[in-house]
Model the fold of this input.
Amino acid sequence: MTNFKQLPYLAQIAIVTVVIVLVAAVIYWFALVPIDKKNQADEQILKAKKAEVAILEPFERNLPKLIAESEELQAKMVAQNKVVPENKEIPSLITVVEKESIAAGIHVRRYTPKATTKKEYYTAVPVEIDVDGPFFSVLEFYTRLQNLERIVSVGHLTMGSLKGNGKSGIKSSYKWRPDETVAANCVLTTYYSNPKPAAPPPGAKPPAPAKRKRR
Done:
């Protein structure tokens, strides 16, 4: 067998060149090509991330504004809940009325709950009360009720003097103080927002429409 060194010089160069090319080809296909493919894949991912960032950039610039709007909306919801609470407990109304009556300097003699009225979005809860005190104090009491954050309407108001059998609408007799000059009877009505109906579970069928009765 001919030794490599015995081959002509040009043949040696050719063989070395072929070996180098083969080694380079192996390195290219098995080392450089996978790296290049990975770099291309990473570049595509980077482009996709840059596109996502470009979409989110306007939101990022408006983030303080969005946070402020969210806080404002939350504050409005809290204020609305004060005006029309979700809690239907009458004692909370009585607490408010007692506080205002003490501030005005009058007496609330009686609380009698009436039948509630349920509407589409709210429920009206009326309470009949008897009050008495100095004339201007009673007026201040009703003024305070009108200025409450919570909606409390006054209806069926009757007022009369404690002297001379004035028509106050109060059926019971109480022990009046010397400075009390008038008594009044009215119906206070407060309002509560109706709870939202619970969302149906996923996959639940919608209720069938009600059938109309034949006349």
Remarks:
- The two ends are 115 Å apart (CA to CA).
- Confidence is low (pLDDT under 50) at residues 79-85.
- Residues 7-61 form one domain.
- Residues 9-61 form the longest helix (53 residues).
